[in-house]
Amino acid sequence: MNFLSMEYFLAVAARRNITRAAEELHITQQTLSAHIAGMERELGCPLFVRRTPLELTYAGEVFLRYAADFSERYQRMRMEFGDITGNQRGLLRIGIAHTRCRAIMPSILPAFAAAYPQIEVRLLEDVNDQLRAHLTEGTIDLAIAHLPEPLPGCEQRDFYREEVVLLLPRAFPAPVPEEAGPLIDLAPFAAIPFLLGNPSDIGGQIGRERIRAARFQPVVRAQSDNIETLLALCASGMGACFSPENLIPVALSPGERARLRIYRLGPDAGYPIRFGFRKKPYQWKLLDAFMTIAREKLQSSDARADGPAPGSTSL
Predict the structure, then answer these.
(1) Which of 14, 101, 134, 142 has the most neighbouring CB atoms within 10 Å?
(2) The dihedral of CA 21, 9, 75, 27: what is its sign?
(3) Which residues lie closer than 8 Å to 242 by C-beta, 6 or more apart?
(4) Under a CB-based contact definition with an 8 Å cutoff, are residues 275 and 141 in contact?
(5) From CA 129, how far away is CA 147, in angstroms rounded?
(6) Which of 124-128, 187-191, 217-221, 244-248 has the lowest mean pLDDT?
(7) How far is residue 139's CA from residue 83's CA, in Å, rounded to a whole number?
(8) Considering the entire predicted model, what is its pTM?
(9) Rounded to whole angstroms, how far apart are CA atoms 194 and 304?
(10) Which residues on adjacent β-strands are paired with residue 116?
(11) Is the pLDDT score of 229 beyond 80?
(12) Which residues contact 193 (CB under 8 A, 6 or more apart)?
């Protein structure tokens, strides 16, 4: 038995599916199955109940504890020796929401890859609540998320602030002029149809809170977990939409943006995005390197932008 076989076992245990685990590991199902069968022969007992989805046997649960501990120690050793020799290799697992990834990663990852060409970055795109769970469970090395409170065994560092704005198609009469200042009360929008996002997403939460505070029952034309879909529907004239401001230039063309009014919602519609990572006996220096590059690229993007961008939003 070797570390590679244990990594393969951990991937199957996490996915509970040979096909998905093999795709993630970039190997064939036959190779993966052979490694699992080899470990079971060596240990003298089955590790999985072969059904869909796969289930761990009692022996598999015991082996999972040992494999996870060995894997973490082995990874720490590789990280420390990579830092000592300057020969950084390996895998950096980053958890981030899909829309936030689309907005910021295209400027960050090329710069990071140029500086660390032998590091594979694996992106796990999920909703904010799940990212916190992935971080505490150790299935990601770094979270880029809205982390409003400390997490057990984790450390946080500030990255930038996001601002949720309200977009209204120009096809609708403006209940309030755009230049009137922050839109604190949504009551004038009671007759406007809305396109609402996922209530578990921070943008969806802020939008719903503002509607509740205005004390009206909204006309909901559409609801989706995908904010890019909602933005496209908004640009087509279907209804008003709440969105993080930094996603708008990524998801919509200049022509589509020209068809929309943008209302700012005031200071409480902004929230911090932070880096989160687990506290460990040895902290991989690559995490600091990634965070430094990410901040630098976001600041340089802000400097080139015509309007406010994620790192320069004034709240």
Answers:
(1) 142
(2) negative
(3) 164, 165, 166, 167, 196, 197, 203, 204, 206, 207, 210
(4) no
(5) 9
(6) 124-128
(7) 22
(8) 0.70
(9) 33
(10) none
(11) yes
(12) 218, 219, 220, 221, 238, 239, 240
